[in-house]
Amino acid sequence: MIERKRFDIAIVGGGIVGLATAYRLLQKRPDLRLVILEKEAEVATHQSGHNSGVLHAGLYYVPGSLKARLCREGKQMVQEFADAHGIRYELCGKVVVALDESELERLENIRVRAEANGVEGLRAISGEELREIEPHCLGVRALHSPRTGIINFREVALAIADDVRAMGGEIRTSSPVTDIEERDEELILTIRSADGVERVVRADHVITCAGVYSDRVAAMTGDAADERIVPFRGDYYTLTEDARYLCRSLIYPVPDPSFPFLGVHLTKRIDGEVWAGPNAVLAFSREGYGRGDINPKDLFGALTYRGFQRLATKFLGTGLAEMWRDWYKPAFLAALQKMTPDLRGDQLIWGPSGVRAQSLKRDGKMVDDFSLAQSGRLMHVRNAPSPAATASLAIGNHLSGLAIEQFEL
After folding, report:
1. Residue 70 lies in a domain
2. Total of domains in the chain
3. Backbone phi, psi, residue 194, to 5°
4. Mind listing the pLDDT tens digit for each residue in 380-400?
């Protein structure tokens, strides 16, 4: 069934980035005929609803990168949006802890990078000052970022969705896009519902914000590029209520330079919980939130991808250690006790998991920055892992500006 209605813009993906892009477009061009196509029955159910809820201040990102700029801008935008919509958040602060002298040079490198990124209020503190902020945390030195915060990003995403609808945009859930074809100066998007019925949506332009499926959706348009999404699962434990006093804010280790993730940490949540984690292991399904979730197509695609094979070879030892820590709780606990030695094993309860959609090139290098591409009537968000939720409204502002200029809207 082909609709007679033709949209100016169709956005594929109803996560927080797709929603924010629609929101910014309608703010700038209120007369746009716009539709968001989301495959799930609700919006923001994957990365947007499976993250730790940290409002990142921008400590780690390469100065001048999109991540650095849009994280800083986006954090302020999210706070302003939350204030206007009555969404609770807290600037609880964050410490990055050097456990011993061997980590001081790496800590100093983070400080230099963070200051270049304009992180507000950042200061280097001694071990004694650290214990004034986090009495149960041990370290010889730390960085304190007092403006790092926490929020419920799914709550933010749902509020953005409400605003998109109020501004005249359509949001169609249970609408998985299975094909995108350019025909007669318009784009034809095929949607196949669960009962096998096909519908066709017509649009002048398409922006894809498909998260963990971003590479596959881009490939539908013939724009596969030299990168592919490889999903990494991050598992968390939660602290029992009697152990929450051990963490007042966010406690992070100095990242291991031999591994492209931040390491297990303690995260205070806006609902009062404290999460411990995550580790980082290959997810056997792009929607694999549990250890037993396996999608043969996803797993085969990852294992046979040359880029993943090169990455796995390079980080074999560290990767095996991550897998061991994933399955062996005492190893997970030992990593946490390096920073918070008072934490006991019986105070850790198996908790939630998230899947990071990480774009990987064939040479085995992870795409470090946000990756955006535009060609003709199409624009793709290829890579938008953390801090994409923090940066979402800034990403949306950036994409909407590009779309208005490039698509001559």
Report:
1. no
2. 3
3. -60, -30
4. 999 999 999 999 999 999 999
Give yes or no for a contact between 251 and 137, defined as CB atoms under 8 angstroms apart.
yes
> pLDDT averaged over the chain?
94
Give backbone dihedrals phi and psi of 327, rounded to 5 degrees, phi first.
-95, -20
Residue ending a domain, choose from 104, 119, 146: 146
Q: Concatenate the DSSP letters of all residues of 370-381 into one string.
A: -EEEEETTEEEE
pLDDT tens digits, 110-161: 999 999 999 999 999 999 999 999 999 999 999 999 999 999 999 999 999 9
Give the CATH number for residue 165.
Answer: 3.50.50.60
Q: For residues 110 and 226, what is the distance between their CA atoms, to the nearest angstrom?
A: 30
Estimate to the nearest angstrom the gap between the alpha carbon of 123 and the chain centroid.
Answer: 26
Cβ contact 47:395 at 8 Å = no
User: Which string of DSSP letters, residue by residue, matches 322-388?
Assistant: HHHHHH-HHHHHHHHHTT-TT--GGGEEEEEEEEEEEEEETTS-B--S-EEEEETTEEEEEE--TTH
Same domain, 234 and 218: no
Count of C-beta atoms within a 10 Å radius of residue 240? 13
Measured distance CA(234)–CA(230) in Å, rounded: 13
Q: Residue written as tokens 């968001």?
A: 36
Q: Domain range spanning residue 295?
A: 229-361
Torsion, CA 131, CA 153, CA 51, CA 12, rounded to 10: -150
243 shares a domain with 216: no
Asked if the structure places residue 82 within a domain, the reply is no
| Range 221-243 average pLDDT | 92
Instruction: Quick: pLDDT tens for 62-120.
Output: 999 999 999 999 999 999 999 999 999 999 999 999 999 999 999 999 999 999 999 99
- Say if residue 192's pLDDT is above 70: yes
Q: What is the CATH number of the domain that holds 299?
A: 3.30.9
The set of residues, in sequence order, having a beta carbon less than 8 Å from that of 16 and lying 6+ positions away, is: 44, 47, 48, 153, 156, 157, 160, 388, 389, 392
Instruction: Write out the H or E segment, with its range, that includes residue 156.
Output: helix 153-166
Task: Say if residue 44 is in the same domain as residue 185.
Answer: yes
Q: Percentage of the chain surpassing pLDDT 70?
A: 99
Strand 198-208 to 378-383 pairing: parallel
Q: How many residues does the chain have?
A: 409
